[in-house]
């Protein structure tokens, strides 16, 4: 038993290192997504001004906006997963003991992984088809579709890999009896955690406000 526990802890440490890398990639993706949305907002603003004042158009802002929305939304999936920010219906969850909650968390994550594996498969298939055929958008921009799709699929792959590794890390924590750790990885957020986050955000916002003189 002692040897098995040490082996599981070693596996958990290895998974933790990989998860740190994935979390860093997720954070970088959030910043990149925010930058894309900021640039898009400036482009849309310029488009409105040009149309209103000069009867001109940059062209393609609606198409670019669609690509940006798809990519940034998918990049946010991983951050939501790491932050345990996905919405859950917890009617039964909060009434159970830690072991019972952990079982429900595992079932929920299995369902998420299964569902997203289908989406990732179809996304990858579409990317490969458009890459092979050289498919372009049916717009004046004639965008090679593989360009936005490769970023979209990469964001999906990051989310899928993160979900699988979190699932494995959660199982390891449960196997060694660390139920609190399992809950912090794959469990639903409780009211206390939500309140602590709100208080932290409020305090952080207060620090950036200039004190009245």
From TrEMBL:
Tripartite ATP-independent periplasmic transporters DctQ component domain sequence ranges: 44-170
Swiss-Prot/TrEMBL GO biological process terms: C4-dicarboxylate transport
GO CC term (a single one): plasma membrane
Presence of the UniProt keyword rRNA processing in the record: no
Membrane topology: Multi-pass membrane protein
One Pfam family recorded for the sequence: DctQ
Protein keywords: Cell inner membrane, Cell membrane, Membrane, Transmembrane, Transmembrane helix, Transport
GO molecular function: transmembrane transporter activity
Cell compartment(s), UniProt: Cell inner membrane
InterPro entries in alphabetical order: DctQ (IPR055348), TRAP_DctQ (IPR007387)
Primary location class: membrane
Domain of life, per lineage: Bacteria
Ranges annotated as spanning the membrane: 21-44, 64-82, 103-126, 146-168
Role played: Part of the tripartite ATP-independent periplasmic (TRAP) transport system.
Description of how the protein assembles with itself and partners: The complex comprises the extracytoplasmic solute receptor protein and the two transmembrane proteins.
Record PANTHER family: 2,3-DIKETO-L-GULONATE TRAP TRANSPORTER SMALL PERMEASE PROTEIN YIAM (PTHR35011), TRAP TRANSPORTER SMALL PERMEASE PROTEIN (PTHR35011:SF10)
Family per record: Belongs to the TRAP transporter small permease family.
Name of protein: TRAP transporter small permease protein
